[in-house]
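User: I'm putting together a teaching handout on how multi-component assemblies are represented. Below are the sequence lines for each component of a complex, exactly as they appear in our records. Could you produce the 3D structure of the whole assembly as structure tokens, so the students can see both representations side by side? Please keep the chain order the same as the input.
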Amino acid sequence: MSAADREVILEANDLTREFDGVTVLDRFNFKLHKGEVLGLLGANGAGKTTAMNMLLGLTTPTSGAIRAFGMDFVKHRLEVLKRANFSSAYTSLPSNLLVWQNLTVFAKIYGVPNVKQKITELLELFEIADLRKRVTGQLSAGESTRLNLCKALLNDPELLLLDEPTASLDPDIADKVRKTIRKVQKERGISILYTSHLMKDIEEVCDRVIFLHKGKIVAEGTPEEIVKKSDAASLEEVFIKIARSGEVEAAPASN
Amino acid sequence: MNPRIVSALVLRYLYLYGRTPMRLVELIFWPIVELLIWGYLGMYLQEHAGSKVPTIVGHLLGGIILWDVIFRAQQGVAISFLEDVWTRNLLNVFVAPVRNMEYLTATFIIGFFRILVTVTMLSVISFSSFQFNVFEMNWAIVPFFGNLLVTGWALGMISTALILRWGQAAESLAWAVPFFIQPFTAVVYPVKQITPVWVQWLSLALPSTHVFEGMREVLSEHTFNWSHFYWACGLNVVFLGVAGWIFSSTLNATRKRGLLTKFATQ
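Assistant: Of course. Below is the structure of the complete assembly, with chains in the same order as your input.
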């Protein structure tokens, strides 16, 4: 079954957001299918964080609609959030609590059965079981990122929104995190919307990507398709090209 | 409202207080300092004024202890919210399936716990140092306590809304807001002392004023003024409703303006 035939888990229809008369996201449309990992790419200010925030219900769209699991997101926000989760490099769990305390609180919020067992499973999955009794604020960036991902997987989400999950990680930990995300995603059929500035992340984790530039979609497809279409050597080159010119197509050769 | 979610949020604050007992110091230190100052002042005045002001110590200490009910309830809401801001945890809570009412209820409960700690401590010290027994108010302490708790919650919601509106730069409002009403709510002096006279009407529009007036009647005349009680309850219903509306509409406006994420990650 092709991706397009699979159930649509999350979709945005003409999602638009203006701030003080400036359009930062302009009629954004996309569909995230079941079991698919969709990368949202773009330079700073391209509109991906705004899109992510609207998809999480943190920012109200100026116009347009979001549907998740076939439901209108605004009307069924809580039902959607029960089946989804989120992790960002820019948020953290309360620094003064122990690792197990933080996970216990969120496990209870999400109504996770067998809390202790679930926490142990997740900490082992991300290879941080030895940190269970550590104070969260004393964790390294890599440990903290993995703890955030443990939180994000507590409720066995069907939909996961990951905002730069490997930002500020060293290559070794970033590689481990990417592989673990991909492994869990495949095993559980999770649909993931993924933002990152690291093209290695995108190539390794994402099935499909959307490039945003000044709030508009400028390219969409698999990483390979986009590289081929733009006549570039790598996705990173495409990124730079789009960030500088807003164009993805290869420029015609000049004499 | 889901009790499981409320209890999970309460658990988060209990873990926090368990992990950082220094936070309990602020629940005890400043209230005791205040109680001692007013207690000694009351004793001094009573000694020099003799039988003219036989209940002054009781009025001052009763006022101070009951004022702390408002202040701690308000702090329970506002500081609990700020804890989530300070630890950059706010987004995790807002993207979890948590209703605004569940979040607020958890902070109300934390406010209640904070009051129990402070009021118990103050009651013990006021009895042992100044022979003032807060239970001289008998059963009247229950409606007094209940009404002030609700007033504190309402002020907590307003403080939180102001912080949401103005950002972390305005976080000192978490401590300041109750003191906007303190001079006018007749904590340690009767409403008739407040001048100019038209301000007395403003004072009587505050639910807490009726509690403090009622407290003085109980301590001086041993009578419970039902009129004050009804006024306090009615005004509290209005206060709580208005504060809830201010909080919800500010939160919605913050979402509409796209400031919630910036605010929660700054």
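A couple of points students might notice: Confidence is low (pLDDT under 50) at residues 251-255 of chain A. Residues 92-156 of chain A form one domain.
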